[in-house]
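Q: Structure tokens for this one, please.
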Amino acid sequence: MELSASPRLLSSPTSLMPLKPKFGFRVSQISSSTFHLHSSVLSLKPNYKMEFTRTVCSASSSERNGSPAAISSTASGPRVGEVKRVTKETNVSVKIDLDGSGIADSSTGIPFLDHMLDQLSSHGLFDVHVRATGDIHIDDHHTNEDVALAIGSALLNALGDRKGIYRFGDFSAPLDEALVHVSLDLSGRPHLSYDLEIPTQRVGTYDTQLVEHFFQSLVNTSGMTLHIRQLAGKNSHHIIEATFKAFARALRQATEYDPRRLGSVPSSKGVLSRT
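A: Here is the predicted structure, written as tokens:
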């Protein structure tokens, strides 16, 4: 851009004041070498081994709901946790990929628990692989507990130092007449606040008392603060399933990367530990 003005305007001590000189300007063609855009993707590779990708959306993009820019963050390595737990009562193996696509592959010998783990995978977009055998000829208690303990441990391993994540998650899930609210903090401090009123003792063959025990076990090994609160509901199946769906969505929020945090630990202490 070339700008020309009168010498009086340029030499005057009041040249910054609003004046009305006679001047004109001419815009020259900008050389293509002045700016260089390498597609529409900007990649930053800071030294904390996390890659952030910024994708600029066009105004006509309907897939991103018309937002001006969509930001996605990916770790340089996979966030996968694997745990094998063997006792005299159970044999459990768990693999969870936090950056998966919602692949559910669970076989615990407890059909209703498998159904709930499918909700965790589908609505959290985690790839969850669970295999468990146990003394279910007695009851489901030990298998239910050890599966939850293993999932919590796998989650702990997958999260690592928890750098760059949102840390907090909050979601309310409706299922017909049922409505359940879940709020969680990946703080490293295990705590469960549980307020469900499930009207029947069983759903199929599954003892509904085991729902609380499942989440307490998961909280203990993952180092998670978890609040579960029922806002409405009369059907036992709906209440429990809404709980797992809300938990999955809240956990998804908490484990996703915050692009503004740039890989730092989401704590004023600078560390999120298990103790």
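A few notes: The mean pLDDT is 79. The first helix runs from residue 7 to 11.
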